[in-house]
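When time allows, look over one protein, given below as sequence and tokens. The question is which stretches look regular and which look disordered:
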Amino acid sequence: MLGNPSDPDTFSHLFSKPTRKAGLGHWHPHELWHFGASLMLAQGTPLRVVSDVVGHASFAITKDVYGHLMEGDKRAASAATSGALLGRPAPLAPRLALTDTEETG
């Protein structure tokens, strides 16, 4: 069938076979889109950048879909503000990558 259009359901079915075999359940290709957006947010990518990457028409759509993933950011902001007002420094978030100076020594 070279050169003929494929049925999207066929691709979806073939895609889900390895995910089930890996014990992840039945995944559809679109779920990788959500996974990628969620991963970007978890790594600190600004919401506006994620919105642009995933192609949402507006920043508000991305916020509505993924806003629940940012609750930790709200708690950290609250702790930092309280700490500043009360004279207690807020704990720093763990860094995920070394800076250029740390890598080169």
In short: Residues 94-105 have pLDDT under 50 and may be disordered. Residues 38 and 66 are 7 Å apart (CA to CA). The first helix runs from residue 8 to 21. The helical segments are 8-21, 29-42, 47-54, 59-66, 71-86, 100-104.
